[in-house]
Amino acid sequence: MPVLKPQSVLDGHSSNRTPVPLIVGLVVSGVCLLLAVGFYLLTGGPVNVGVGTLLALPTAIVLVALILLVDRLEPEPRVNLVLSFGWGAGVAIIGALIVNSVTGALLLPSVGQVAADGITASVVAPVVEESFKGALLLYLLLVRRHEIDGPTDGIVYASMCGLGFAMVENVLYYMRGIDDGSLAFMVLLRGVISPLGHPLYTSIIGLGVAYAATHSGPGRVFAVIGGWIGGVLLHALWNGSLTLLGFQGMVIAYGVELLVLIVLVVVLIKDRRRLVRLIGRYLPAYIPSGLVQPNDVQMLSSMSGRRQARHWARAQAGNTGVRAMGDYQLAATELALLHSHAEKSTIAPHQFFARREAILALMRMARDAFFRRMPQPPPPPWAHEQPSGFFKIPAELKEMPTHKLRAQISPVGPRPPQAQVTQRLQPPAGQRPPAAMPPRQQPPAGPPQQPPAGQPPQQPPLGHRPPGRPPQPPGPQGPRPGGPWPPR
Q1: 354 and 268 in contact (C-beta within 8 Å)?
Q2: In this model, does residue 480 exceed pLDDT 50?
Q3: 144 in the same domain as 34
Q4: Where would I find the beta strands (DSSP E) of 73-232?
Q5: Predicted local confidence at residue 4, as pLDDT
Q6: What count of other Cβ atoms lies within 10 Å of the Cβ of residue 375?
Q7: pLDDT tens profile 143-185
Q8: Are 329 and 226 contained in the same domain?
Q9: Are 110 and 185 members of one domain?
Q10: Is 356 exposed, middle or buried (0-12, 13-18, 19+ CB in 10 A)?
Q11: Structural domain of residue 66, as residue ranges?
Q12: Which residues does the annotated region (Disordered) include (predicted)?
């Protein structure tokens, strides 16, 4: 079996090949984009299409760069970002063109041209366009759920999809502006005043999808539906205000969208702080293994520390060194996010162990690649003459932490507290804990008995298993202190 490339490990792929569903999505998006371009050429001519494209590109380029800037701490797979942009620019555009045009034609005989245009723009278009764009996010939730680690990921994917849609739609509006003499107004409105419209609408759906990807339970469904409703309402507010109230309506809608933008910025800031806290929360448990050291955790918890480490690696080992340091940093971040998924029971134990082994292997590969290029580097500046996990990764990692699983709720009595469990090695192949305890081993009802006053609590004997947990397979040194079992 070929060794996985670093990017394949970071992207969570089981091979170095691009997954077939992503390839199919890119092909479908490209075909739909070609159909949209063909429609533009037939209705507006090549000159108008060229001018409209040149006017729409600068806004799209600037906003894509902004999104990539937001996505720096834990970057999403590039192929996923390309698919998101292409889906918005191709599938969502061609779908919206067809449905909106057919709906307007059906309304025309009964309500007239003006009313048909108003209903289509204010009611039909928001529902149709947000549904087509939201379909991409739903696909990521169902098929690539492990790649959505929080609100930032949902906003990034949604914004890329919305930007693709907005860029191609702007070309159409600029073509119309050339024909009716309103080109300057259209460029000002869509390219300067409200370039973030479609990314904002779809980002609300992205927040709902991100919640569903990082939580379990029936609330996931309501989060997705609520995000879709929020995106549709905000889109309808903008279109309806412009159609019914003109300039005054635009001012009102613009104020609301500005508030939504501020809320999204706050969400992004809080989510970045959450990710930093995850690094500080989960990685210290790996200090006894030698994988990281306290100074490494501090370096990984700040963008400035990461940047300083990469600059040092480049100065010592050139491009090889900076790539190795970047892989080490991203793998450490993915390790913290992996534990967060495990704690929320959004990943199965066997997937947790397989993913963790791949991440640890990548960290070792990064370290080895650096030292092949620079066998005796000087002490790194972030370590302050102290040991660093980047330099002292052991050949075998033992006593590494694993899930923090939810404890079972007894039929009667209070819920027992959660307990952090550890495991010495990965479970032996072919051995799985039983799905449930035998009836005779069920914990007694009611709260646990307390020892008499003045007596210390009794310590559990070796191999003791807390009530409510299935027995674990024995390890090489005898009974394990804990281990993986199916989430409840």
Answers
A1: no
A2: no
A3: yes
A4: none
A5: 61
A6: 8
A7: 888 889 899 999 999 999 999 999 999 999 999 999 888 899 9
A8: no
A9: yes
A10: buried
A11: 6-245
A12: 408-488
